[in-house]
Amino acid sequence: MKRKIKIVLELLLRRLPERLEIMVSLFFNRLKSRLAGPYKRHAFLKPFIRLCDFIVVRTNGDRFIEFELTNICNAQCVFCPYPDMLRTEKKFMNMSEQVLDKTIRKISGFKDALISFTPTTGDTLLHPDWDHYIARVLEQKSISKATMFTNAIKLDDAYAERFVRLLSEDEGKMSQVYFSVGGLDAETYKALYKVDRFDLVRNNINGFLKRLTENRIVTGIHIHVKLLKGMEFDAVRASQLFNVHDYPFVYFSYSDRYFSNDGYKRNAIIDYYPVDEPVKQHACAYLLKTRFAADGGIWADGCVISEMPGDSSLRLGDVDDSHDVIEEARKRIIDNWEQRQIIPKPCQGCTVYRCRRGV
Ligand code: SF4
Predict the structure, then answer these.
(1) Whole-angstrom Cα distance, residue 69 to residue 100?
(2) Largest separation between any pair of C-alpha atoms in the chain
(3) Is it the case that residue 278 has pLDDT exceeding 90?
(4) Residues 217 and 252 grouped into a single domain
(5) How far from chain centre, in Å, is Cα 256?
(6) Which residues pair with 317 in a beta bridge?
(7) Which among 63, 220, 336, 340 counts the fewest CB atoms within 10 Å?
(8) In the structure, what pLDDT confidence band is assigned to residue 255 with cuts at 50, 70 and 90?
(9) In this structure, are 334 and 321 located in the same domain?
(10) How far apart are CA 157 and CA 160, in angstroms?
């Protein structure tokens, strides 16, 4: 029954017009942060907070901002172009304070946008000042909702303490945190992430969740498990491994298929989504997303395959360009696609594609 209600609710949320979707998202995010205070004394509020999380993650929309504090990574995942990028001229770096200041000024022009601290390649926790930088962004009035994605390799006790401090000082804007893990055992982790960090990551996530439980901090924690070809996801095992302290706002999800495009080198150990529409007449809705890169570049989209090694066809400009220049560049990419069938390299055969018709 509960499952059926979720499916219906999900279908309804997917059909909301964009403006209404943003309003619903902001409303439930604020409601959740209001409930977080009384939850410390009234545990019965747990299902209401979980319902808010359910709605908030399904109303993120298409226009969110990927905020890349660093493009350096501590893994070499087989589903990511990062290992190939290391062999190109691209500069791998942390965002400087000067770029942060300029980026903060720029994002005030993107009204009601969700900020996702998720690099295209890299792990946010590798920036030495990640918590201060995130706090600076969250304190901006124009920002009402944020998320973060990390592989948790760096989330040791000291970092967990810093993260808890960040969340306790935040006014409920950091709505959801995503952990990306490779399978449910050390062998799968190593095969997918190419580093031997399964036990470390498991301890880190459990240590962090223990702190959240003890401090009764309310944040949606999404543990996303990547799987090898033919593997089945075991939700009970996942919970036993990664949520030993039974933190109430943990949500598991998994990938048994991965995104790719025509320029992407496929790996035989994982399955990929098929390309179901080879000729795409309309541009992709995700071109409306914006990525602020660690080096000050501004790009359309920001998903893991939106920047291919040696290609910058989705680059819109940089933090010194005006909002109009950035939006003109975005329009040019979309017009080239829809009127001249010039499709940017990362979008050719891309299986993340979502049609923008009706957006
Ligand atoms: S088609 Fe793929 S690469 Fe292009 S904008 Fe959409 S998701 Fe990004």
Answers:
(1) 8
(2) 60
(3) no
(4) yes
(5) 18
(6) 298
(7) 340
(8) very high
(9) yes
(10) 5
Long-range Cβ contact pairs of 93-98 (< 8 A, separation 24 or more): 93/294, 93/295, 94/69, 94/70, 94/126, 94/127, 94/128, 94/294, 95/68, 95/69, 95/70, 95/127, 95/133, 95/294, 95/295, 95/296
Asked if residue 267 and residue 121 are part of one domain, the reply reads yes
Residue 306 in contact with ligand 1 by CB distance below 6 A = yes
Residue whose CB lies within 8 A of the most ligand 1 atoms, among 287, 288, 311, 330, for a mutation test: 287
- Residue 352 Cβ contacting ligand 1 at under 6 Å: yes
CA distance 107 to 261: 29
The three-state secondary structure class of 125 is helix
Q: Does any ligand 1 atom lie closer than 6 A to the CB of residue 325? A: no
Q: Which two tokens stand for residue 191?
A: 């095969």
88 and 194 together in one domain: yes
Residue 319 CB partners (closer than 8 Å, separation 6+): 99, 102, 103, 106, 292, 296, 298
Q: Are residues 75 and 16 in the same domain?
A: no
Cα 334 versus chain centre, distance = 23
Q: What tokens appear for 299 in the block? A: 């790009």
- Residue 148, H or E segment: strand 145-150
For the segment 213-226, what is each residue's pLDDT rounded down to a tens digit? Answer: 999 999 999 999 99
Question: Which residue lies with its CA nearest to atom 4 of ligand 1?
Answer: 347
- Distance from Cα 346 to the centre of ligand 1, integer Å: 6
Q: What is the pTM of this model?
A: 0.92
Confidence tier at 275 by pLDDT (50, 70, 90)? confident
Q: Count CB atoms within 10 A of the CB of residue 181.
A: 25
- Residue 178: CB within 6 Å of ligand 1? no
Ligand 1 pocket residue status of 285, Cβ below 6 Å: no
